[in-house]
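Progress against Task 2.4 (sequence-to-structure conversion) is shown through the following example record, which the project officer requested during the mid-term review.
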Amino acid sequence: MALALSPIEAEQIRDLRARLNRVPAGSLGDKSVGPLSKGFFVVCGRVGLEPQTGGEGFASVAELKTAIAEADLIRLKQIVGRLQGLQAQDFKIWRTLFNHGVLQAVLTRRMILGGREPPAEAS
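Structure tokens generated for the chain above:
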């Protein structure tokens, strides 16, 4: 399993993360959620985050974001698999995850694991 990211892969992650950060909350951003969600899963596949089954579920968004921040590559793939399932289940649940920056957290963690960004400082 290669952790390193090529410059092109890193740029794809940065670009998508920036686009996700610009989506307005509420109904103004609803039209962007579908295409950006699809783009998220496409980029995940390109950067070694193919969805996998397994791992534990999450009781809250905060718990999910903590798990992402501590995940290794295998666990991150399992989280992407869970996210893919949640996206197909219910738009309201997916939009909540989307609005709380879960997709950006996954992309940031991949950048950290790939050596393209420093780990977040423990506070």
